[in-house]
Amino acid sequence: MLDFARPETLPGRQVEAWKYSDLRAAVRTPLPPSPPAQPALGPDLFAEVPARPITYVNGRLQCGGEPGGPADVHRLRIVSDATGTAHRVAAEFAVRAGERAVLLETYEGRGAYAADAELRITLDPGAVLERIVVADEPEAAVSVSRASVQLAPGAAFRQTVVASGARLQRLETTVSHPGGGAEARLDGLYLLKGARHADLTSIVAHEGLDGVTAQLTKGVVRDRARGVFQGKIVVAEGADRTDARMGHHALLLSDGAEVDAKPELEIYADDVSCAHGNTVGALDEQALFYALARGIPAEAARAMLIEAFLGEVVDRIQHEAAREAVRAWVAERLR
Fold this sequence. Notes:
By secondary structure, this protein is mostly beta strands. It has four helices and 17 strands.
């Protein structure tokens, strides 16, 4: 748990896992608890997706799981409306054996607040969960979301995290992977401008035989923004026949932009198939030239190429309505 009332206890650059996202530097003075709020909620990204609503405002549960939506689709909105204060959300989500569920999760708000969200997700044997997270917060906010995922044998966890950054925004996922045919897909996408900062961090611990992990993260950074990717896959001794793949690819669209990437494989087993890849570069000038040669205006051509670059992550979202909502969100920001 992060204690924003005691900033000296917050992790900073001296902590390896936080060296690219110095939380202590972002919160220098003690912050009191955020007051209750009744904000006028903005447009709901997933408004067209029927779901059971769960809404927190400034850390307080406003509504939770009311009937009316489908039992297998849950809509979690974490809303903040405060300045100079801090709040925390703690929630649990479980999928029972053999069941399938979708969790649509957004972080939104206004003001210069600090927020800490902690989620515990449990999947029983044979359970399937697709978690789609969109963090679209104010530029002055400090926001940390940490999800701890416990898989059972035969379970499948599929996640896509989409981030637009904030003063400091960190979306962290830790997966306890038992093997036994369980599968984890951890994808991410960040689209940053101005002075925004987004950190996508994940740790997957393979602890048994026959586990699968696939991970793809892509980012686009412009102006003075900073993107951080930290992905770590640990294969324990005896976790043979693990198949784990990780890829991170980013585009820098201006000289002042920055991307820090730290992909890691830590392997203590022999019979495994594991790999990771990482690239950071500029937009493909040859592809841009061909688009311009066909009469496409320069800005439209760049947006088209960037959308195609990010589209590989969006296309992996399985829930159709949610996939199209995220695609529209990306296209709107590129325009």
